[in-house]
Amino acid sequence: MKNLAIFDLDHTLINIDSDNEFPKFLIEKGLLDAEEAAAKNEQFYQDYLNGCLKIEDFVAFEIEPIRHLNRTQLDELHREFVETHIKPHISNMAQMLVRGHREAGDELLVISSTNEFVITPICHLFGITNIIGTQLEVDADGYFTGKVVGVPSLQGGKITRLDEWLMARGETLADYSKTYFYSDSHNDLPLLEAVDEAVAVNPDAELLAHAKKRGWVVLNFM
């Protein structure tokens, strides 16, 4: 039986929040109004930190300016985003962590509340192809609608989406010898409590306090 190593992405494998950073990038590209969008983006981020984010509202805000773009245009936009806003914030320690689990033969999985369009190419930088993010609806022509499909992978939704992923593989967590989850956020406490080994990475204050109380390992990659 192999192990399952699950990673959050934002402020865990990367030292930045890609979901907060992408609208900033769109503002720089002139696809969002700077003054109005910056304030909205910051409020959404504070809502996430406070555990009260309405993710459907944020997705609608984030996706609206790129709904008219086709896949080729989206991919080119994302390549620039990764080069300018993501790669500078990947630490050697995060890369070593993933590499250690890979070399041990563990199954690797990222679960993030950020949508799959934003996170998938970032996860590929780590060589991770098992990816769960909030799913975006597309229309008949393949364009984003700005709506969410299914259960968002936020808070307890991460457990729901993990169970769906396992079920599609004909598995449960019991099929793995040991399960790990690495995260920075108190929003992820439901899944952190569900695995064999919870690890707090760059933890927020609430998660740090909980980790100390439970005796969890704490790592800092910043």
Write the layout of secondary structure elements.
Layout lengths: L3 E4 L10 H11 L5 H16 L5 H9 L7 H16 L5 H12 L3 E9 H10 L5 E8 L5 E6 L7 H12 L10 E5 L5 H6 L2 E5 L3 H10 L2 E3 L3
Helix pairs in contact: 1-2
Output the keywords.
alpha/beta; 7 strands; 222 residues; 18% strand
Question: What is the general shape?
Answer: globular
Please estimate the helix content. Answer: 40-55%
- What is the overall number of helices? 9
What portion of residues belong to β-strands? 15-25%
Q: Report low-confidence residues grouped into runs of 5 or more.
A: none
Supply Rg. 17 Å
Strand order of the largest sheet: 4-3-2-1-5-6-7
Oligomer: single chain
**Could you tell me the number of beta strands?**
7
| Main sheet characteristics | 7 strands, mixed
Alpha carbon gap, first and last residue: 33 Å
Give the class from helix and strand content and strand pairing: alpha/beta
Secondary-structure element series: EHHHHHEHEEHEHEHE
Rounded mean pLDDT score: 95
Quick take:
Helix content is 46%, strand content 18%.
Structure write-up:
The chain has helices at 18-28, 34-49, 55-63, 71-86, 92-103, 116-125, 157-168, 189-194, 205-214, and strands at 4-7, 107-115, 131-138, 144-149, 179-183, 197-201, 217-219. It has 222 residues and is of the alpha/beta class. It is 46% helix and 18% strand. It has 9 helices and 7 strands. The chain has a 7-stranded mixed sheet, with helices on both faces.
